[in-house]
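Blinded run. Sample ID left blank on purpose so nobody reads anything into the name before looking at the predicted structure. Input follows.
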Amino acid sequence: QVQLVESGGGLVQAGGSLRVSCAASGILFSIYTMAWYRQAPGKQRELVAAITSGGSTNYVDSAKGRFAISRDNAKNTVYLQMNSLKPEDTAVYYCHAWVEIPTTQKDITYWGQGTQVTVSS
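Blinded prediction complete.
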């Protein structure tokens, strides 16, 4: 059974820092691209940061310079370090795993249940 379990969310003041974690089980973690998405009330879910199996990263513009995604394949865990947090970062943060099946046009994706991050002004 595949599970992505997020932790580390909470309430923080603007300008503060928070690290959220996602522990994966039931998948060959090292081959998956891992990502963090977020969804604020009344808004669409958006990609915040992603890290490939090879360690390449990309970020949404609003997160560049403030957030850092990393992974520990030995622990099957992906992290999102969030610094200089702003009230507009308030959202439910979801962990996402994705891998493309070679020689097909199919892929496999999994989602975590989400963790709430609230930034007070």
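Unblinding after everyone has recorded impressions. The chain has a mean pLDDT of 97.
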